[in-house]
Design brief:
About 0% of the residues are buried. α1 crosses α2 and α1 packs across α3. A hairpin with a 2-residue loop joins β1 and β2. The protein has a two-stranded antiparallel ribbon with strand order 1-2. The radius of gyration is 19 Å and the shape is elongated. It is mostly helical. The protein is built from three helices and two strands. It has one domain.
């Protein structure tokens, strides 16, 4: 995966820039719109258009989850596994 793409993802999800803030407000607006859509359409009869919109919303949510995992900073396992963070990599204190 391209390093700059991952950097852009990390900046969008974790950054403190106006661009990152707008991105996260966009995600919030999408989440609110999705909830309102689901509540509103739950009272309507099923139709192919609503089903396709449901599928598109699901794909966008899936893309968001994948992007969050791709843009995550590497993390070390918990302290109970006795690993320590050193130089950007997880290593055992013994070696």
């Amino acid at each position: 995966m391209n390093s700059t793409f991952v950097d852009h993802l990390r900046e969008a999800y974790e950054g403190d820039t106006p661009r990152a803030h707008r991105f996260r407000y966009g995600l919030l607006a999408f989440d609110i719109t999705t909830i309102l859509f689901i509540v509103a359409t739950s009272f309507l009869p099923r139709s192919p258009v609503v089903e396709w919109i449901d599928v598109l919303i699901g794909l966008v949510i899936l893309a968001d989850i994948v992007a969050r995992f791709c843009g995550r900073a590497p993390r070390c396992p918990s302290a109970s596994s006795r690993l320590r963070h050193a130089g950007g990599r997880c290593r055992s204190p013994l070696g």
